[in-house]
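Lecture 7 notes: from sequence to structure.
We start with the chain below.
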Amino acid sequence: MEAVGQLTGGIAHDFNNMLTGIIGSLELIRRRLARGNIEDLNSLIDLGVTSANRAAALTHRLLAFSRRQSLDSKPVEMNHLVNAMDELLQRSVNESIHLQLRMASDLWTAEADPNQLES
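Predicted structure tokens for the same chain:
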């Protein structure tokens, strides 16, 4: 029963992080629109859409797990995956924290489910 609690807590935490990205993007868009600043809204919209897609992928994985379906493994370039998550990760932490990514140039492609790695 303790393992189920830990699993549920982890899933709730992941989903909450994704919702934070969506809500944060929408709030920033609202503030900019209120000030009449419509510049660079596309990046905020993209961030919200990315977070929503990750939330959808999480629910897909939950459904796959509940049906015991296999995950969608494919060749994944880890540097590309981590770079794609950079802005979301930065917005998920306190503003006083600045994340710096250091990528290895010689990484091999890995066979994995990218949605699983993102969570």
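Points to note: Residues 2-118 form one domain. The chain has four helices and two strands.
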